[in-house]
Specification:
With 359 residues, this protein is mainly beta. The chain has 2 helices and 30 strands.
Length: 359
């Protein structure tokens, strides 16, 4: 897809599949990307190179690459745009100083680390590993020992709202933890790990692929490998729980009249229009949805390959889209080299606004 006024492709993408993308909390242009090529990449998405006379000048600048010992499965920014945290297949959770390039191992799990999320409201980092544990860290106070919380299943997706962290596991298990309780337990150095604030069974029948938390702190959305998304609210009252719903998406009509179903790989809520969220799938498409109105707002032009990850910039003006071959047709002879691409879409003023709120 060629660069356009509203969408452009970043130069110097990773050499293999992308696992996560994340914008800095204090910048609409600093973007972190983690990859199976054992690197974390830091871009300035709004930098340009090449003369204006070139038909397709390069977009974005690769500021720095941070090498790891194994594929990197997730990355997030910390309290500001100068630090990051990574989760890798070598079992390690790392702190990365984005200015100096220094890396520090915060903890080591007993299996690959699948997800990391940082809560700026509570100054704690949560890592989720396939050893069926959460590790709770306070990066600003290294003297505090890491708090370990056992999980009843292998975690596959995790996201944090201002007050909660949602952990989706195998067997349709979903645990929701109160972040203030996790922070207090870490400070107290308790030997009795905090219990989940809520325990739920996923509304989706198949394995959870992604979780996104509402910026309003009201609830979350989950997606599955079987082309479905569910939207739920934290409030446990019967009235609130009656609002939850699930729907089919990221499917294509097959030649025999049946649907070809693709995994929904990524979800991201808009930081300004907080009922709007984006979904991305193995069908190579990205869609915008209004969670409150239960309607699809927009489907973007199809990409060349599966969409693996999404992120909105903190001001809501940009949407980063990571494209690379998926595993929908199997893993034999898999290679993301030459086909891994990162697009950044500049959103129109009302592009992500729920239709009922526009003029």
């Amino acid at each position: 897809m060629a660069p356009s006024a509203t969408q452009f492709e970043l130069a110097q993408p990773p050499n293999d599949a992308i696992s996560a993308v994340a914008f800095a909390p204090d910048s609409p242009s600093r973007l972190l990307v983690s990859s199976w090529d054992k690197n974390v990449y830091l871009y300035d998405t709004l930098a340009t190179s090449g003369s204006s006379e070139e038909e397709n000048p390069s977009h974005g600048a690769l500021l720095r690459t941070f090498e790891h010992r194994a594929p990197v499965m997730d990355v997030c920014f910390g309290a500001h745009g100068r630090e990051a945290f990574s989760a890798a297949v070598d079992w390690q959770v790392r702190h990365i100083d984005l200015e100096t390039g220094d890396q520090t191992v915060l903890s080591k799990h007993e299996a690959p680390v699948r997800r990391v999320v940082y809560s700026r409201e509570h100054s704690i980092l949560i890592s989720a590993s396939w050893d069926s544990t959460l590790h709770i860290h306070n990066p600003s106070n290294p003297s505090l020992a890491t708090l370990t919380i056992p999980l009843p299943g292998k975690p596959h997706a995790m996201a944090a709202s201002p007050s909660k962290v949602i952990v989706a596991m195998t067997s349709r298990l979903v645990h929701i933890y109160d972040l203030s309780s996790l922070a207090s337990a870490l400070t107290a150095q308790t030997n009795d790990p905090p219990q989940p604030w809520q325990q739920r069974e996923s509304s989706l029948k198949f394995l959870t692929r992604a979780v996104a938390a509402m910026p309003s702190d009201a609830g979350y959305a989950t997606s599955s490998i079987e082309g479905r998304v569910a939207v739920e609210w934290f409030d446990a009252s019967a009235e609130s729980q009656a609002r939850k719903y699930a729907f089919k998406c990221h499917r294509q009509a097959g030649g025999d009249g049946t649907d070809v179903v693709y995994p929904v790989n990524a979800l991201a809520f808009h930081p300004v229009h907080v009922s709007t969220f984006a979904s991305a799938g193995g069908d190579a498409t990205v869609a915008l949805w209004d969670a409150d109105a239960k309607r699809r707002m927009k489907v973007y032009q199809k990409f060349a390959d599966s969409v693996a990850a999404l992120a909105f910039s903190p001001d809501g003006r940009y949407l980063a889209v990571a494209v690379c071959p998926g595993f929908e047709t199997g893993m034999e002879d898999y290679s993301g080299e030459g086909r891994t691409r990162i697009f950044v879409r500049a959103l129109g003023e009302n592009e992500a606004m729920p239709k009922g709120k526009g003029k």
